[in-house]
Amino acid sequence: RGIPREPGAHWTEPGCQSCTCQGGRVLCDTVSCSVPCSHPLPAPAGGCCPTCTGCLHEGVARAEGDVFSPSNGNCTVCVCLAGNVSCFSPECRPESCPNPSAADCCSCNPEKCNFRGRTYAHGARFSLDGDDCTTCVPLGGEVECSFTPCPVLDCPQHQRHLGPGQCCSTCRDPPAPTGCFLDDNGVEFPIGQIWSPGDPCELCICQADGSVSCQRTDCVETCPYPIRIPGQCCPDCSAGCTYMGRIFSNNETFPSALDPCLSCICLVR
PANTHER family per the record (predicted)? Predict the structure, then answer.
């Protein structure tokens, strides 16, 4: 489509097509969505999958933890929890109360509240059906329930995990790198591999975290006429001497190029 893509790049095309660049070819497949809730919100703009960070109930979008009454539910109270909508009705005491009000579900404010077959004192806190992620409080004969707020995660959706008994998802640790990948030449080195990137005086090592650490070698010349060997970083003072563009072996005698009456010798010191 006129846009260059790097090898291994991933992107989403219109129509919820997930594409990747492999070996000069573009491979696309339809995005598959796993929706683990009963009332998900529609996919956000630019997205492909419905989200469980809120609820869609009777055509109305509800925020996470929102408590509301359905349009025809009378005294029924519903709560949006992780994309699921749970509804329940308050249970009133059977005895009559003074000055009843037809507008209230229960016309009195008892000291205790009967809820789903159990009696709770006014202001007591309990969990909904043993769900430790939900806290309920009886107030004035009614039960108010709220969901434990969860922190905002900074990891992508595929790295999030909800463990058994946990109220909030956590971020999985990213997989440990198996090596170092260099974009400039497309070579992947295993962890611990040492190599030279082209300069014989520079050595690089692949670290355990997938990063590359390089260090240069500082050469110290210990003789005035060393031999420079191609592909070797530092000059060699033990292999002979380089004099006036010529190489002489150890203990070799030769006439001086400046004065034919002078005799020179290559000595390793």
Answer: VON WILLEBRAND FACTOR C AND EGF DOMAIN-CONTAINING PROTEIN
pLDDT at 223: 84
CATH of 51-92, one of 2.10.70, 1.10.1740, 2.40.30, 3.30.1890: 2.10.70
pLDDT in tens, 102-152: 455 655 555 677 777 788 887 788 877 667 788 888 876 678 888 778 888
Task: Give residue 244's pLDDT.
Answer: 87
Query: Hey, do 51-92 and 179-216 end up sharing a CATH topology, with the first three levels equal?
Result: yes
pLDDT at residue 111, as a whole number: 64
Question: What are the boundaries of each domain within the chain?
Answer: 51-92, 113-147, 179-216, 222-268
In 3D space, the residue among 49, 51, 50, 54 whose CA is nearest the CA of residue 68 turns out to be: 54
For domain 179-216, the CATH architecture is Ribbon (2.10)
The model carries a pTM of: 0.33
